[in-house]
Amino acid sequence: xxxxxxxxxxxxxxxxxxxxxxxxxxxxxxxxxxxxxxxxxxxxxxxxxxxxxxxxxxxxxxxxxxxxxxxxxxxxxxxxxxxxxxxxxxxxxxxxxxxxxxxxxx
Length: 106
Hints:
Binds to DNA and alters its conformation. May be involved in regulation of gene expression, nucleoid organization and DNA protection. Homodimer. It holds the Pfam family YbaB_DNA_bd. Residues 8-35 form a coiled coil. Keywords: Coiled coil, Cytoplasm, DNA-binding. This protein is of the alpha+beta class. It has a domain at 30-96: 2-Layer Sandwich (Ybab, Chain: A). It contains two helices and three strands, in the order αβββα. Strands 1-2-3 form a three-stranded antiparallel β-sheet. α1 packs antiparallel against α2. It is rod-shaped and about 75 Å long.
């Protein structure tokens, strides 16, 4: 039985190390900046790793009162793309911790 407890303690230490690495990776992700443009750079959307939009830049040339739909489409395109970038980076970064593990919900 004693050998089993040693293995359990060792496994718990490894899990704690992995948890600290995961927390550090998540903090680093949250500090990252992601950027997407649409319309050849006419609209730029910037987000952080928390999926929060931190900046939107719109070139004056694209602001046409007769074609608001196009501007809205450009903003949506850039916003959706920047959020996808954050999600992809998050999945790549955090996925390294769950590779090979069969954990439901991860």
